């Protein structure tokens, strides 16, 4: 009996080599039956293989819904002839070789050759073809791959910190410029006219058109211009002279309106407050002139003992700051209507500076903040609070002379002009007074600086007889449009006849 059991086992093993009758159909059989039945019943042809399978539809002991099986076609193989595949293989093998792209019309010539020789365009033989070019990296990015797969533009608000050029945007010649630290020979009007005094003449440069206008010249060659100051509207220019005069000029008509005599020495500083023109003299006196009336001299301020070289009215017209060669910095109240006579009562008076105070600047967005700079060996920029009388901050600039100061409201910065030893212009962040940029190029001490009407450019004049324009404060286009919408037209201040 054992022999018969062994033979049965041998027969059962040999059955493994025999065809399996109950097994699912082979793949080639399913494809053959599917193609044969597709013309008769294309909907039911996909389910032919389901009936022949003996696999249970449900797993015993588990209640799981069966996902209906679908017979899908094989991957798509494009129909290409032998020539196209040969050309595609050739192009793939030549992908690393450099091609000459300098010749114009190369692609058109290759297309014509391909159509003539092969009967089709060579571009159609490519297996893969990617069109379009990636965007270039924005300014400041070192790696171009950062924008290789990004088609979105960088918004203006997300751009990096502005670029400040170390070279001037324009250089103007200023021959015969008087190299005198105590004089104020440069001013920029609200109508975009830059006035400069060259010895005994005044010239205007139209920053919009680029034209140069000759305004006036003094009668005697030994006399010279000491100071210039525009009105707020930019239609009138005040000129201080070495013969103790203050002249008022109508720029549109190039006509002198009047000449006011009240000082006993040269007039080195001027500043406007509506219809009141304040003038500082070498005698140490400050005179207020009401240009609307014949008796123009309405008040005298006489605290300074030496030449008044710095004079600035605050933006709100409440205070007048004056700096002198006696190292005093004074703040004066606005003169009362019809008061007349001498007024020597100051709001504040500081003596911390160790040199002549010519550089003065009021903060446009904080009316009670005043910046001052000392000359000679003082080297310090000091920030004052006029209301409290305290010095908010002090900075040693490591420069022997600070000749001029101006606030740049577009970025809330402070600009300073310097003499020996660097003869440069420095931009400081306010109120931290950290150095932002340094503008170098003048070969002699910088005597004065002034801001353009839109506060985007600063003009500097130096003893090297050049005027340099630095476009360092251009506003972001989005912010510029918002600022223009908020701007209101200013009305004229001088309504009455100037006599």
TrEMBL record:
GO terms for cellular component: anaphase-promoting complex. Residues 172-470 form the CDC20/Fizzy WD40 domain. Keywords: Repeat, WD repeat. GO terms for molecular function: anaphase-promoting complex binding; ubiquitin ligase activator activity. Residues 32-79 are annotated as: Disordered. Transmembrane segments: none annotated. One of its GO terms (biological process) is positive regulation of anaphase-promoting complex-dependent catabolic process. Residues 32-41 have a biased composition (Low complexity). PANTHER family: CELL DIVISION CYCLE 20 CDC20 FIZZY -RELATED, CELL DIVISION CYCLE PROTEIN 20 HOMOLOG. This is CDC20/Fizzy WD40 domain-containing protein. It comes from Salarias fasciatus. The gene is cdc20.
